[in-house]
DNA sequence: CTAAAAACCGACCAGCAGTCGGTTTTGTAA
DNA sequence: TTACAAAACCGACTGCTGGTCGGTTTTTAG
Protein backbone atom coordinates (compact mmCIF):
# COMPACT_ATOMS: atom_id res chain seq x y z
CA UNK A 1 0.00 0.00 0.00
CA UNK A 2 2.17 2.83 -1.22
CA UNK A 3 -0.36 4.90 -3.06
CA UNK A 4 -0.58 7.01 0.07
CA UNK A 5 3.12 7.73 0.13
CA UNK A 6 3.05 8.86 -3.47
CA UNK A 7 0.25 11.30 -2.81
CA UNK A 8 2.09 12.58 0.23
CA UNK A 9 5.19 13.26 -1.84
CA UNK A 10 3.07 15.03 -4.42
CA UNK A 11 1.57 17.25 -1.73
CA UNK A 12 4.99 17.95 -0.26
CA UNK A 13 6.20 19.00 -3.69
CA UNK A 14 3.33 21.40 -4.19
CA UNK A 15 3.69 22.78 -0.68
CA UNK A 16 7.44 23.21 -1.15
CA UNK A 17 6.90 25.32 -4.24
CA UNK A 18 4.06 27.36 -2.80
CA UNK A 19 5.79 28.03 0.52
CA UNK A 20 8.78 29.40 -1.32
CA UNK A 21 6.90 31.53 -3.82
CA UNK A 22 4.02 32.86 -1.71
CA UNK A 23 5.43 32.29 1.75
CA UNK A 24 4.20 29.96 4.46
CA UNK A 25 1.51 32.12 6.04
CA UNK A 26 0.19 33.21 2.66
CA UNK A 27 -0.10 29.67 1.39
CA UNK A 28 -3.47 28.21 2.35
CA UNK A 29 -4.34 24.56 2.67
CA UNK A 30 -7.17 25.30 0.27
CA UNK A 31 -4.59 26.53 -2.22
CA UNK A 32 -2.58 23.35 -1.92
CA UNK A 33 -5.55 21.04 -2.32
CA UNK A 34 -6.90 23.02 -5.26
CA UNK A 35 -3.62 22.63 -7.08
CA UNK A 36 -3.49 18.95 -6.19
CA UNK A 37 -7.14 18.47 -7.09
CA UNK A 38 -8.04 16.73 -3.86
CA UNK A 39 -10.42 17.38 -0.98
CA UNK A 40 -9.68 18.93 2.37
CA UNK A 41 -10.16 15.66 4.16
CA UNK A 42 -7.55 13.96 2.01
CA UNK A 43 -4.98 16.54 2.96
CA UNK A 44 -5.64 15.99 6.63
CA UNK A 45 -5.57 12.26 6.09
CA UNK A 46 -1.92 12.59 5.08
CA UNK A 47 -0.85 15.37 7.42
CA UNK A 48 -1.71 16.35 10.94
CA UNK A 49 -1.52 20.06 10.28
CA UNK A 50 -0.25 22.71 7.94
CA UNK A 51 2.74 23.23 10.20
CA UNK A 52 3.69 19.57 9.98
CA UNK A 53 3.91 19.99 6.21
CA UNK A 54 6.31 22.88 6.72
CA UNK A 55 8.39 20.75 9.04
CA UNK A 56 8.60 17.93 6.50
CA UNK A 57 9.38 20.30 3.64
CA UNK A 58 12.24 21.76 5.61
CA UNK A 59 13.41 18.28 6.49
CA UNK A 60 13.63 17.39 2.81
CA UNK A 61 15.66 20.48 2.04
CA UNK A 62 18.11 20.02 4.87
CA UNK A 63 18.56 16.33 4.21
CA UNK A 64 19.49 16.97 0.60
CA UNK A 65 21.99 19.67 1.55
CA UNK A 66 23.43 17.62 4.36
CA UNK A 67 24.17 14.78 1.98
CA UNK A 68 26.20 17.08 -0.23
CA UNK A 69 28.01 18.54 2.75
CA UNK A 70 29.01 15.11 3.97
CA UNK A 71 30.49 14.33 0.58
CA UNK A 72 32.69 17.37 0.95
CA UNK A 73 33.67 16.39 4.47
CA UNK A 74 34.81 12.99 3.23
CA UNK A 75 36.64 14.37 0.19
CA UNK A 76 40.35 15.02 -0.01
CA UNK A 77 40.41 18.80 -0.17
CA UNK A 78 42.36 21.61 1.45
CA UNK A 79 40.80 22.38 4.82
CA UNK A 80 39.79 25.98 4.07
CA UNK A 81 38.02 24.82 0.94
CA UNK A 82 36.24 22.15 2.93
CA UNK A 83 35.02 24.75 5.40
CA UNK A 84 33.78 26.93 2.60
CA UNK A 85 32.26 23.99 0.76
CA UNK A 86 30.30 22.77 3.75
CA UNK A 87 28.96 26.24 4.46
CA UNK A 88 28.13 26.62 0.80
CA UNK A 89 26.38 23.26 0.63
CA UNK A 90 23.78 24.58 3.03
CA UNK A 91 23.09 27.62 0.90
CA UNK A 92 20.31 27.46 -1.67
CA UNK A 93 21.80 26.76 -5.07
CA UNK A 94 20.86 26.03 -8.64
CA UNK A 95 17.13 25.86 -9.10
CA UNK A 96 16.69 26.77 -5.47
CA UNK A 97 18.08 30.26 -5.86
CA UNK A 98 14.69 31.95 -5.51
CA UNK A 99 14.57 30.47 -2.03
CA UNK A 100 17.12 32.97 -0.89
CA UNK A 101 14.95 35.89 -1.84
CA UNK A 102 11.82 34.20 -0.55
CA UNK A 103 13.24 33.42 2.88
CA UNK A 104 14.24 37.01 3.42
CA UNK A 105 10.71 38.27 3.01
CA UNK A 106 9.41 39.18 6.45
CA UNK A 107 6.30 37.06 6.08
CA UNK A 108 8.56 34.02 5.93
CA UNK A 109 10.33 34.77 9.19
CA UNK A 110 8.98 31.66 10.86
CA UNK A 111 10.09 29.38 8.04
CA UNK A 112 13.47 31.11 7.89
CA UNK A 113 13.98 30.68 11.60
CA UNK A 114 13.04 27.01 11.52
CA UNK A 115 15.41 26.40 8.63
CA UNK A 116 18.19 28.26 10.39
CA UNK A 117 17.83 26.06 13.43
CA UNK A 118 17.79 22.78 11.53
CA UNK A 119 20.64 23.93 9.36
CA UNK A 120 22.75 24.73 12.38
CA UNK A 121 22.16 21.29 13.84
CA UNK A 122 23.17 19.67 10.56
CA UNK A 123 26.16 21.84 9.72
CA UNK A 124 27.71 22.30 13.15
CA UNK A 125 29.08 18.77 13.69
CA UNK A 126 30.51 18.62 10.17
CA UNK A 127 32.25 21.94 10.57
CA UNK A 128 33.53 21.05 14.01
CA UNK A 129 35.14 17.92 12.60
CA UNK A 130 36.72 19.86 9.78
CA UNK A 131 38.09 22.43 12.18
CA UNK A 132 39.61 19.65 14.28
CA UNK A 133 41.14 18.28 11.14
CA UNK A 134 42.52 21.74 10.42
CA UNK A 135 44.01 21.98 13.89
CA UNK A 136 45.69 18.64 13.32
CA UNK A 137 47.15 19.98 10.10
CA UNK A 138 48.32 23.17 11.73
CA UNK A 139 46.02 25.27 9.58
CA UNK A 140 43.91 26.39 12.54
CA UNK A 141 44.67 26.85 16.19
CA UNK A 142 41.94 27.32 18.76
CA UNK A 143 39.96 25.85 21.62
CA UNK A 144 36.22 25.78 22.26
CA UNK A 145 35.53 24.60 18.75
CA UNK A 146 31.75 24.22 18.95
CA UNK A 147 31.34 27.74 20.30
CA UNK A 148 33.51 29.15 17.54
CA UNK A 149 31.76 27.17 14.84
CA UNK A 150 28.46 28.50 16.13
CA UNK A 151 29.68 32.04 15.64
CA UNK A 152 31.09 31.17 12.24
CA UNK A 153 27.77 29.75 11.10
CA UNK A 154 25.97 32.75 12.48
CA UNK A 155 28.07 35.19 10.52
CA UNK A 156 28.17 33.22 7.32
CA UNK A 157 24.45 32.62 7.20
CA UNK A 158 23.82 36.32 7.75
CA UNK A 159 26.30 37.17 5.03
CA UNK A 160 25.11 34.72 2.40
CA UNK A 161 21.45 35.21 3.22
CA UNK A 162 21.80 38.54 1.56
CA UNK A 163 22.56 37.97 -2.10
CA UNK A 164 23.90 41.50 -2.49
CA UNK A 165 26.70 41.38 0.06
CA UNK A 166 29.61 43.64 -0.77
CA UNK A 167 33.18 42.65 -1.49
CA UNK A 168 34.20 44.47 1.64
CA UNK A 169 31.84 42.39 3.73
CA UNK A 170 33.32 39.26 2.23
CA UNK A 171 36.85 40.37 2.98
CA UNK A 172 35.95 41.20 6.57
CA UNK A 173 34.18 37.87 6.88
CA UNK A 174 37.29 35.98 5.83
CA UNK A 175 39.49 38.07 8.08
CA UNK A 176 37.22 37.45 11.05
CA UNK A 177 37.01 33.76 10.24
CA UNK A 178 40.79 33.53 10.31
CA UNK A 179 40.81 35.12 13.72
CA UNK A 180 38.00 33.01 15.10
CA UNK A 181 39.71 29.77 14.12
CA UNK A 182 43.24 30.95 14.73
CA UNK A 183 44.39 30.68 11.12
CA UNK A 184 47.40 32.57 9.82
CA UNK A 185 46.82 36.16 8.78
CA UNK A 186 45.64 36.23 5.16
CA UNK A 187 45.65 32.45 4.84
CA UNK A 188 41.97 32.43 3.87
CA UNK A 189 42.17 35.39 1.52
CA UNK A 190 42.41 33.16 -1.52
CA UNK A 191 38.85 31.96 -0.85
CA UNK A 192 37.61 35.38 -1.82
CA UNK A 193 38.15 34.82 -5.54
CA UNK A 194 36.79 31.32 -5.29
CA UNK A 195 33.56 32.57 -3.80
CA UNK A 196 33.14 35.28 -6.38
CA UNK A 197 33.77 32.81 -9.15
CA UNK A 198 31.19 30.46 -7.78
CA UNK A 199 28.69 33.21 -7.38
CA UNK A 200 25.76 32.06 -9.49
CA UNK A 201 27.50 28.85 -10.41
CA UNK A 202 27.44 25.72 -8.37
CA UNK A 203 30.61 24.46 -6.78
CA UNK A 204 31.25 21.06 -8.34
CA UNK A 205 33.48 18.45 -6.85
CA UNK A 206 34.73 17.37 -10.29
CA UNK A 207 37.88 19.46 -10.26
CA UNK A 208 40.20 19.45 -7.32
CA UNK A 209 39.33 23.04 -6.63
CA UNK A 210 42.94 23.78 -5.81
CA UNK A 211 43.73 27.33 -6.52
CA UNK A 212 46.17 29.90 -5.38
CA UNK B 1 -8.21 66.61 20.83
CA UNK B 2 -6.18 64.19 22.82
CA UNK B 3 -8.81 61.69 23.78
CA UNK B 4 -7.88 59.77 20.67
CA UNK B 5 -4.21 59.72 21.53
CA UNK B 6 -4.95 58.44 25.00
CA UNK B 7 -7.02 55.56 23.67
CA UNK B 8 -4.29 54.75 21.19
CA UNK B 9 -1.73 54.53 23.97
CA UNK B 10 -4.08 52.33 25.97
CA UNK B 11 -4.44 49.98 23.01
CA UNK B 12 -0.68 49.96 22.43
CA UNK B 13 -0.17 49.03 26.05
CA UNK B 14 -2.60 46.14 25.86
CA UNK B 15 -1.14 44.98 22.56
CA UNK B 16 2.40 45.19 23.92
CA UNK B 17 1.53 42.94 26.82
CA UNK B 18 -0.45 40.47 24.77
CA UNK B 19 2.11 40.23 21.98
CA UNK B 20 4.77 39.35 24.51
CA UNK B 21 2.77 36.84 26.49
CA UNK B 22 0.78 35.09 23.76
CA UNK B 23 2.85 36.02 20.73
CA UNK B 24 1.90 38.18 17.79
CA UNK B 25 0.09 35.65 15.63
CA UNK B 26 -1.76 34.20 18.59
CA UNK B 27 -2.98 37.59 19.72
CA UNK B 28 -6.23 38.45 17.96
CA UNK B 29 -7.68 41.88 17.38
CA UNK B 30 -10.82 40.54 19.03
CA UNK B 31 -8.73 39.73 22.08
CA UNK B 32 -7.34 43.22 22.26
CA UNK B 33 -10.69 44.95 21.88
CA UNK B 34 -12.34 42.67 24.42
CA UNK B 35 -9.73 43.58 26.98
CA UNK B 36 -10.04 47.25 26.09
CA UNK B 37 -13.84 47.06 26.06
CA UNK B 38 -14.23 48.72 22.67
CA UNK B 39 -15.69 47.76 19.31
CA UNK B 40 -13.85 46.46 16.28
CA UNK B 41 -14.46 49.68 14.38
CA UNK B 42 -12.81 51.74 17.08
CA UNK B 43 -9.67 49.68 16.85
CA UNK B 44 -9.49 50.23 13.12
CA UNK B 45 -10.22 53.90 13.61
CA UNK B 46 -6.94 54.18 15.51
CA UNK B 47 -4.84 51.70 13.54
CA UNK B 48 -4.65 50.72 9.91
CA UNK B 49 -3.97 47.07 10.64
CA UNK B 50 -2.85 44.62 13.26
CA UNK B 51 0.65 44.73 11.80
CA UNK B 52 0.84 48.50 12.21
CA UNK B 53 0.21 47.99 15.91
CA UNK B 54 3.15 45.61 16.02
CA UNK B 55 5.30 48.16 14.23
CA UNK B 56 4.38 50.88 16.73
CA UNK B 57 4.87 48.61 19.72
CA UNK B 58 8.35 47.76 18.48
CA UNK B 59 9.02 51.44 17.85
CA UNK B 60 8.19 52.23 21.47
CA UNK B 61 10.53 49.54 22.73
CA UNK B 62 13.44 50.55 20.53
CA UNK B 63 13.03 54.24 21.22
CA UNK B 64 13.23 53.68 24.93
CA UNK B 65 16.32 51.53 24.64
CA UNK B 66 17.99 53.89 22.17
CA UNK B 67 17.61 56.75 24.62
CA UNK B 68 19.48 54.80 27.27
CA UNK B 69 22.16 53.79 24.80
CA UNK B 70 22.76 57.38 23.78
CA UNK B 71 23.24 58.34 27.40
CA UNK B 72 26.00 55.76 27.60
CA UNK B 73 27.57 57.00 24.39
CA UNK B 74 27.73 60.52 25.78
CA UNK B 75 29.07 59.44 29.18
CA UNK B 76 32.70 59.47 30.23
CA UNK B 77 33.42 55.79 30.49
CA UNK B 78 36.15 53.38 29.42
CA UNK B 79 35.57 52.40 25.82
CA UNK B 80 35.07 48.66 26.39
CA UNK B 81 32.44 49.42 29.01
CA UNK B 82 30.71 51.76 26.61
CA UNK B 83 30.59 49.04 23.97
CA UNK B 84 29.16 46.60 26.45
CA UNK B 85 26.75 49.18 27.83
CA UNK B 86 25.33 50.06 24.44
CA UNK B 87 24.86 46.43 23.52
CA UNK B 88 23.29 45.82 26.88
CA UNK B 89 20.96 48.80 26.59
CA UNK B 90 19.28 47.08 23.67
CA UNK B 91 18.68 43.91 25.63
CA UNK B 92 15.41 43.52 27.49
CA UNK B 93 15.93 44.40 31.13
CA UNK B 94 14.05 44.89 34.36
CA UNK B 95 10.33 44.33 33.94
CA UNK B 96 10.91 43.39 30.31
CA UNK B 97 12.78 40.20 31.11
CA UNK B 98 9.95 37.92 29.99
CA UNK B 99 10.38 39.44 26.53
CA UNK B 100 13.55 37.46 26.08
CA UNK B 101 11.78 34.19 26.55
CA UNK B 102 8.78 35.30 24.52
CA UNK B 103 10.78 36.39 21.51
CA UNK B 104 12.52 33.06 21.27
CA UNK B 105 9.26 31.18 20.87
CA UNK B 106 8.99 30.16 17.23
CA UNK B 107 5.54 31.68 16.82
CA UNK B 108 7.14 35.07 17.46
CA UNK B 109 9.71 34.75 14.73
CA UNK B 110 8.26 37.61 12.73
CA UNK B 111 8.25 39.96 15.71
CA UNK B 112 11.75 38.87 16.66
CA UNK B 113 13.04 39.50 13.16
CA UNK B 114 11.46 42.94 12.97
CA UNK B 115 12.93 43.88 16.32
CA UNK B 116 16.33 42.61 15.29
CA UNK B 117 16.29 44.80 12.22
CA UNK B 118 15.20 47.96 14.00
CA UNK B 119 17.64 47.28 16.79
CA UNK B 120 20.49 46.98 14.34
CA UNK B 121 19.63 50.30 12.75
CA UNK B 122 19.54 51.98 16.11
CA UNK B 123 22.61 50.38 17.66
CA UNK B 124 24.96 50.29 14.70
CA UNK B 125 25.75 54.02 14.41
CA UNK B 126 26.27 54.34 18.17
CA UNK B 127 28.64 51.40 18.24
CA UNK B 128 30.51 52.62 15.16
CA UNK B 129 31.13 55.93 16.83
CA UNK B 130 32.34 54.26 19.99
CA UNK B 131 34.68 52.03 18.02
CA UNK B 132 36.11 55.08 16.26
CA UNK B 133 36.60 56.65 19.65
CA UNK B 134 38.40 53.50 20.72
CA UNK B 135 40.65 53.59 17.70
CA UNK B 136 41.52 57.19 18.55
CA UNK B 137 42.44 56.08 22.07
CA UNK B 138 44.50 53.17 20.81
CA UNK B 139 42.18 50.63 22.42
CA UNK B 140 41.07 49.22 19.09
CA UNK B 141 42.71 48.96 15.71
CA UNK B 142 40.76 48.04 12.60
CA UNK B 143 39.26 49.21 9.33
CA UNK B 144 35.82 48.61 7.84
CA UNK B 145 34.15 49.57 11.08
CA UNK B 146 30.50 49.25 10.00
CA UNK B 147 31.06 45.75 8.67
CA UNK B 148 32.75 44.69 11.89
CA UNK B 149 30.10 46.27 14.06
CA UNK B 150 27.48 44.40 12.08
CA UNK B 151 29.17 41.13 12.91
CA UNK B 152 29.59 42.15 16.52
CA UNK B 153 25.90 42.91 16.85
CA UNK B 154 25.01 39.69 15.15
CA UNK B 155 27.01 37.62 17.57
CA UNK B 156 26.01 39.49 20.68
CA UNK B 157 22.33 39.40 19.90
CA UNK B 158 22.50 35.67 19.29
CA UNK B 159 24.40 35.21 22.54
CA UNK B 160 22.20 37.33 24.77
CA UNK B 161 18.98 36.21 23.12
CA UNK B 162 19.54 32.97 24.88
CA UNK B 163 19.28 33.56 28.61
CA UNK B 164 21.14 30.34 29.37
CA UNK B 165 24.38 31.03 27.55
CA UNK B 166 27.38 29.35 29.08
CA UNK B 167 30.42 30.94 30.59
CA UNK B 168 32.48 29.41 27.83
CA UNK B 169 30.33 31.08 25.19
CA UNK B 170 30.82 34.38 26.94
CA UNK B 171 34.58 33.95 27.04
CA UNK B 172 34.71 33.06 23.37
CA UNK B 173 32.49 36.03 22.58
CA UNK B 174 34.87 38.40 24.30
CA UNK B 175 37.87 36.80 22.66
CA UNK B 176 36.29 37.07 19.23
CA UNK B 177 35.24 40.64 19.90
CA UNK B 178 38.83 41.55 20.70
CA UNK B 179 39.92 40.06 17.42
CA UNK B 180 37.18 41.67 15.37
CA UNK B 181 37.99 45.13 16.65
CA UNK B 182 41.73 44.62 16.90
CA UNK B 183 41.94 45.02 20.66
CA UNK B 184 44.86 43.69 22.68
CA UNK B 185 44.70 40.04 23.66
CA UNK B 186 42.74 39.71 26.89
CA UNK B 187 41.98 43.39 27.13
CA UNK B 188 38.25 42.74 27.23
CA UNK B 189 38.42 39.83 29.61
CA UNK B 190 37.52 41.96 32.59
CA UNK B 191 34.07 42.52 31.08
CA UNK B 192 33.27 38.90 31.83
CA UNK B 193 32.79 39.48 35.56
CA UNK B 194 30.88 42.67 34.90
CA UNK B 195 28.38 40.83 32.74
CA UNK B 196 27.91 38.02 35.21
CA UNK B 197 27.35 40.51 38.00
CA UNK B 198 24.67 42.26 35.96
CA UNK B 199 22.95 38.98 35.30
CA UNK B 200 22.76 38.18 38.99
CA UNK B 201 21.24 41.53 39.77
CA UNK B 202 18.53 41.01 37.21
CA UNK B 203 16.91 38.16 38.99
CA UNK B 204 17.82 39.24 42.52
CA UNK B 205 15.64 42.24 43.04
CA UNK B 206 15.30 44.48 40.01
CA UNK B 207 15.55 48.24 40.20
CA UNK B 208 13.11 49.88 42.51
CA UNK B 209 14.57 53.32 42.42
CA UNK B 210 14.34 56.09 39.95
CA UNK B 211 17.44 57.59 38.55
CA UNK B 212 18.16 61.07 37.38
C1' DC C 1 -26.96 76.93 19.45
C1' DT C 2 -25.13 74.57 15.56
C1' DA C 3 -22.57 72.06 12.50
C1' DA C 4 -18.68 69.64 11.55
C1' DA C 5 -15.05 66.71 13.04
C1' DA C 6 -13.58 63.05 15.97
C1' DA C 7 -14.56 58.89 18.21
C1' DC C 8 -17.08 54.97 18.43
C1' DC C 9 -20.27 51.04 17.37
C1' DG C 10 -21.34 46.21 15.88
C1' DA C 11 -23.27 43.58 12.14
C1' DC C 12 -21.16 41.79 8.41
C1' DC C 13 -17.70 39.60 5.00
C1' DA C 14 -14.35 36.55 2.90
C1' DG C 15 -10.87 33.51 4.02
C1' DC C 16 -8.60 30.51 7.17
C1' DA C 17 -7.18 25.85 9.56
C1' DG C 18 -9.13 22.03 10.99
C1' DT C 19 -13.24 18.31 11.77
C1' DC C 20 -16.16 14.52 10.80
C1' DG C 21 -19.41 11.22 9.15
C1' DG C 22 -19.84 9.10 5.14
C1' DT C 23 -18.20 7.11 0.45
C1' DT C 24 -15.10 4.91 -2.84
C1' DT C 25 -10.91 2.31 -3.89
C1' DT C 26 -7.70 -1.22 -2.97
C1' DG C 27 -5.35 -5.24 -1.12
C1' DT C 28 -6.04 -9.79 0.58
C1' DA C 29 -7.68 -14.11 1.94
C1' DA C 30 -11.19 -17.61 1.37
C1' DT D 1 -15.27 -14.64 -7.70
C1' DT D 2 -16.71 -12.98 -3.51
C1' DA D 3 -16.38 -10.86 0.88
C1' DC D 4 -14.55 -7.60 3.83
C1' DA D 5 -11.52 -4.60 6.19
C1' DA D 6 -8.22 -1.14 5.72
C1' DA D 7 -6.66 2.69 3.15
C1' DA D 8 -7.72 6.65 0.66
C1' DC D 9 -10.71 10.10 -0.28
C1' DC D 10 -14.68 13.40 -0.14
C1' DG D 11 -16.88 18.03 0.88
C1' DA D 12 -20.08 20.27 3.86
C1' DC D 13 -19.43 22.32 8.08
C1' DT D 14 -17.48 24.89 12.31
C1' DG D 15 -15.38 28.49 14.77
C1' DC D 16 -12.23 31.91 14.40
C1' DT D 17 -9.60 35.43 11.96
C1' DG D 18 -8.39 40.31 10.13
C1' DG D 19 -10.70 43.75 8.12
C1' DT D 20 -14.97 46.79 6.24
C1' DC D 21 -18.66 50.00 6.41
C1' DG D 22 -22.75 52.70 7.13
C1' DG D 23 -24.59 54.62 10.86
C1' DT D 24 -24.50 56.71 15.76
C1' DT D 25 -22.79 59.31 19.66
C1' DT D 26 -19.54 62.58 21.68
C1' DT D 27 -16.51 66.41 21.45
C1' DT D 28 -14.90 70.64 19.77
C1' DA D 29 -15.03 75.17 17.63
C1' DG D 30 -17.29 79.19 15.66
Question: Mind explaining what this structure looks like?
Answer:
Two copies of one chain form a homodimer. The first copy, chain A, contains ten helices and no strands. With 212 residues, chain A is mainly alpha-helical. Chain A has two domains: 1-47, Arc Repressor Mutant, subunit A (Orthogonal Bundle); 51-206, Tetracycline Repressor, domain 2 (Orthogonal Bundle), CATH 1.10.357. The radius of gyration of chain A is 19 Å and the shape is elongated. Chain A binds chain B through residues 106-107, 109-110, 112-114, 144, 147-148, 150-151, 154-155, 158, 168-169, 171-173, 176, 179-180, and chain B through 106-107, 109-110, 112-114, 144, 147-148, 150-151, 154-155, 158, 168-169, 171-173, 176, 179-180. Chain A binds a DNA duplex (30 and 30 nucleotides) through helix 1 and helix 3.
Walk me through the topology.
The structure is a homodimer of 212-residue chains.
Chain A: H1 3-22, H2 29-36, H3 40-46, H4 50-74, H5 79-89, H6 97-103, H7 109-136, H8 145-161, H9 167-181, H10 191-198
Helix pairs in contact in A: 1-2, 1-4, 4-5, 4-7, 5-7, 7-8, 8-9
Chain A binds a DNA duplex (30 and 30 nucleotides) through residues 1, 3-4, 7, 28-30, 38-46, 49-50.
